[in-house]
Write a structure and sequence with these properties.
506 residues, alpha/beta, Rossmann fold, 2 domains, 6-stranded parallel beta sheet, 26 strands, globular
């Protein structure tokens, strides 16, 4: 039977995901088999497992930190917001359907057996399970039939670390207020407090730590410093969206309202000479070296949003001399037409950006698969990618077909890929001039691809850039997880954490 510990926060973006990842890394380094677990995740960043099942990216990141293969049992329920009051509900990696917030609130109790089963599966393969809560356990309106915070802690008998974010201020009120709003039995589960994202001299904070312990009657087991890390985080309040500085090579990512899987660009974010900016308004686009249209949970609505705010017209103008790359929903937008006969989104049809000779029909069945393959013989500025190996995953509700290109327009398929489950091979993507598109998430992650892209963009710009010194992405991520673990070891009482683990006689 696995030992368990749970990390809950005083609010969203308190740093739960990274704290769980760091603990997973520490336990792995100490020789234990570790698995992350989050019963319910709400995110538009998702991942496809080897079995073709969908789960949240945060648990994939945590699995990487733990050194284990991501499995859907780590995140049995995934909510992908489709509107402000509704989400697509995914259970054990498969779409259950769309529900309003009210419908899901009434339904979620039925999911408890699914959660229990997933947790038991992890117990068979792990010595320690590190659980992540969601939001805050003190949200009075959500406490009934809770399945992700204290309700889950009780279900699996987990001790709780409560984390507050000092960087946004009010951390003492956050922690004490949360403790005050908990039921006595819930408060008893909180075995330690963590002050996260601290900047400055810790000794100045010591009187506050004493006050917290005296008033909250719970020990403070860590004051974790603000760490500069490049690790995939949750999508709701991601700080990466606020970066505006332009680097030597500038990549502009269109941040539509329902942007999804922006982690496709993470490989570029770790490169010192490269800026990855998320753009919402035409005035902020400037003159990037590459424009990326990322995934979208509502492709047609997000295209309409770009059309209405002027970004579409500006991108089409820049496509004459700037590399434009669309991924998944962004790829669909680049075509001539998108139709939705089954009302997967809002129904109807609309004209696309007409930069690629494609027609897309949204479908009820979701494509979910890992793929491997290689780029074909490419034309245009990214021709240097020709023949390079790719890997990633498809996750989309639509089928895209080529229509006859104009006689004077050069057109090619981007790559050949193989479904890793069925072993079926097919072509994917499209090229027309400076415009490229593909359904493959993670298309830039493999091997030298990102370096090659940056080198091409630099050469096109007339800039000398030595890409040979750029670190392999997988190596870089391992380095970041080790850096996170080192920071937690220095700032947290790990002896106290080990003591909190259920049946902690190691």
């Amino acid at each position: 039977m696995a030992k368990v510990i749970m990390v809950q926060g005083t609010m969203s973006n308190a740093g739960k995901s990274l704290l769980v990842a760091g603990l997973c890394r520490i336990f792995k380094q100490d020789g234990y088999r570790v698995a992350p677990f989050k019963s319910q995740n709400m995110a538009l960043n998702s991942y496809i497992t080897k079995e073709g099942l969908e789960m949240g990216r945060a648990q994939v990141m945590q699995a990487e930190a733990a050194g284990v293969e991501p499995v859907v049992a780590m995140n049995p329920i995934l909510l992908k917001p489709t509107t402000h009051v509704g989400s697509q509900v995914i259970v054990n990696g498969e779409v259950l359907g769309n529900m309003s917030a009210r419908e899901y609130f009434a339904y979620k109790k039925q999911l408890v057996p699914k959660i229990q089963k997933a947790f038991r599966e992890l117990e068979k393969q792990a010595d320690i399970i590190v659980i992540e809560g969601a939001g805050s356990p003190a949200e009075i309106n959500l406490r009934e039939n809770d399945i992700v915070n204290m309700g889950l802690a009780e279900l699996v008998d987990a001790p709780v670390l409560l984390v507050g974010d000092i960087d946004r201020g009010g951390v003492f009120a956050q922690l004490l207020g949360t403790l005050m709003l908990l039921e006595e039995s819930e408060k008893e589960r909180v075995k330690g407090l963590v002050i996260n994202k601290f900047r400055g001299d810790k000794t100045i904070l010591d009187p506050g730590v004493v006050m917290l312990e005296e008033r909250g009657h719970v020990p403070v087991v860590g004051v974790v410093p603000y760490m500069e890390l490049s690790i995939d985080d949750e999508d709701s309040l991601s700080s990466r969206f606020e970066k505006k500085q332009t680097g030597l090579i500038d990549i502009a990512v269109i941040r539509y309202p329902r942007i999804s899987n922006f982690t496709d660009l993470s490989v570029f974010e770790q490169m010192e000479e490269v800026s990855v900016r998320y753009v919402e308004h035409p005035k902020d686009l400037h003159h990037p070296d590459m424009i990326v249209l990322p995934g979208s949970k509502n492709t047609m609505a997000d295209l309409k949003w770009m059309r209405e705010n002027g970004l579409e017209a500006l991108i089409k103008k820049k496509a004459s001399d700037t590399v434009v790359f669309g991924i998944c929903g962004g790829y669909q937008m680049l075509g001539k037409k998108i139709s939705d006969p089954h009302a997967v989104e809002a129904g109807g049809s609309m004209t696309g950006m007409e930069l690629l000779p494609l027609m897309t029909e949204l479908q009820e069945e979701k494509t979910r698969t890992q793929v491997t393959g290689s780029f074909g013989t490419l034309t245009g500025p990214l021709s240097g990618l020709s023949g390079q190996k790719i890997s990633g995953y498809e996750i989309h509700m639509g089928s895209t077909e080529c229509v006859d290109a104009e006689p004077d327009t050069a057109y090619n398929r981007l790559c050949s890929i193989r479904d890793e489950r069925t072993k079926l091979e097919k072509t994917d993507g499209a090229i027309c001039g400076n415009v490229y598109g593909s359904y493959v998430h993670g298309i830039f992650d493999e091997g030298e691809i990102a370096k090659t892209v940056v080198g091409i963009l630099a050469e096109k710009k007339g800039v000398l850039l030595d890409t040979s010194t750029m670190m392999d992405y997988s190596q870089f991520k391992e380095q970041q997880y080790d850096k996170l673990a080192e920071g937690l070891r220095k700032s947290m009482d790990m002896e106290a954490v080990y003591a909190m683990l259920r049946e902690a006689a190691f």
